[in-house]
Amino acid sequence: SFQPSPNVTHVTPSMTSGMAARARALRATGRTVVDLSQGQPEFDTPAFIREAAQRAIDEGATRYTATDGILPLREAMAQQANRRHQGLDEVGADEVVVTSGAKQALFNACFVLFGPGDEVLVPTPNWTSYYEIVELARAVPVPVLGDPAQQWKVDPDALRAASTPRTRGILLNSPCNPTGAVYSPGEIAAIAALARERGWWLLSDEVYRRIAYEAPASSVLDCTSDRERVVVIDAVSKSFAMTGWRLGWAVGPREVVKAMAAMQSHTTSNAAAVSQHAALAALQGGAAADGAVAEMVEALRQRRDAALQELLRHGPVEHVRPDGAFYLYVRVGSTGGVDPGAFAYDLLEREGVAVVPGAAFRTPEWIRISYGGAEADVRQGVRTIADTLHAAR
Ligand code: PLP
């Protein structure tokens, strides 16, 4: 019989995908299900990007490319980093590696930077895959609980308290999945300063950076002039509604991206050629790209406001008011004395509304609601949640 190797003994399938699969299974039996568990907005990829990709296929973008990605794309990524970095210590195309989604960039970065015995600080709650990716690198993820009164954000004191002589890095995510919290430039600078002082790697996952509703969300590149131990993770997935194209990248020190590319040359090779050309169109899209992103962010803002309005229809409910991304994090507590983790499962079975249990983000009394879906679904689903919470009180 199958005995998993020690490589994967810690790995569990993603709870996010698990809820989506259960929602699909219920639908297949004829039930109406409102799916608020998805980690993606329901928009189509903007037309100018799809058209550029179609042209690229016709013009021969059907073969292997350089492992680290086509040069014009890496140049466009470097240029985007430099616009944020304000010319300090210019990022070159050789400090960029193109990957199959942000997930691969994160995985490869963790794999080349961390190993057995290393500890990596993970502000919590946070995206479920961080813990698993660090474990796949045989390092130890150390959850650092944020402050629920501060949108669950962590500060340098909390990080300091969780650190040991074995701490090697920290995974920062702003805007944050699942809370929608956005770290201010001052908060990012303070964390970057601590990482620099301690010699920790700072991995900054900025895949939701363009999806911010109040002030623009800052990159770590806006907040520090020293990027010797900084790796920025980005992707077109969320900002350009391109999750299925699987296209992300990392910006980091030359030796780090070289090691990531070497690793990738023996695993997946280059990211899909057509996806690279699609991403190039997105990054070079100028006003068309900015307009498409702004339109999506505006639609998401309306859905956020609709979700908040429905959530609070019977009065206060503890939640994080999201300033970015497209998730609403809500405390359901131990309603009616039931196991708090069961709330999401009961909600799906009884009411036909799918959300992700907070256990996936190591805060089991909470749930994550995605408002990336159609506004009518968001309203209906969140209203059901508010009614359920109200009835249990
Ligand atoms: N980082 C965060 C915080 C995410 O929420 C996700 C997707 O859910 C990813 C990375 C993965 O992005 P990609 O689809 O580009 O691999």
Automatic annotation (TrEMBL):
Cofactor(s) in the UniProt record: pyridoxal 5'-phosphate
UniProt keyword terms in alphabetical order: Aminotransferase, Pyridoxal phosphate, Transferase
Region: Disordered, residue numbers: 1-18
Domain Aminotransferase class I/classII large, first and last residues per copy: 32-385
One MF term in the entry's GO annotations: L-aspartate:2-oxoglutarate aminotransferase activity
One biological process term in Gene Ontology: amino acid metabolic process
InterPro entries: Aminotransferase_I/II_large, AspAT/PAT-like, PyrdxlP-dep_Trfase, PyrdxlP-dep_Trfase_major, PyrdxlP-dep_Trfase_small
Family (UniProt): Belongs to the class-I pyridoxal-phosphate-dependent aminotransferase family.
Protein name per its UniProtKB record: Aspartate aminotransferase
Lineage: Bacteria, Pseudomonadati, Gemmatimonadota, Longimicrobiia, Longimicrobiales
